[in-house]
């Protein structure tokens, strides 16, 4: 009986230890976390992919060291979906409105990854961005066409162009082969 209790106690202790090891830390550095600091009373339009935002931002390391800020420059223009900023910042800007201020905690894999951005940002650095959305311009019909239709047209043109190049090369090769045959016929006649 004591042996059975000993095994059960060991199994119970092992289970409790594994549960405590598997518990998530509330400061999980593997997921994007966005907090709204200020939201205007009237928010008529929320940002979506393709929209253009003018933002001011301050990017920091988790120890508080500022790595970049736009406060001393013109606002940064970001067209969502164009990957002009790090992935985590772009994702945090979807669903915001003009006048909104957010704080985004961006994990390394959505920022600069294992390599970092030496010498300013070390590898595997979690970043914190405070962002103010100055203005928001929805995607125009022209932008929609360029962003959605144009890539499809290009995708369809590639096989067509490859087919035309192949046809040209085939025709050229046949023409050269025909010239060779004609030269051989002329040389046999002589």
TrEMBL record:
Its EC number is 5.2.1.8. The lineage of its organism: Eukaryota, Metazoa, Chordata, Craniata, Vertebrata. InterPro entries: FKBP2/11, PPIase_dom_sf, PPIase_FKBP_dom. Residues 1-22 form the signal peptide. Keywords: Isomerase, Membrane, Rotamase, Signal, Transmembrane, Transmembrane helix. PROSITE patterns: FKBP_PPIASE. Residues 50-137 form the PPIase FKBP-type domain. This is peptidylprolyl isomerase.
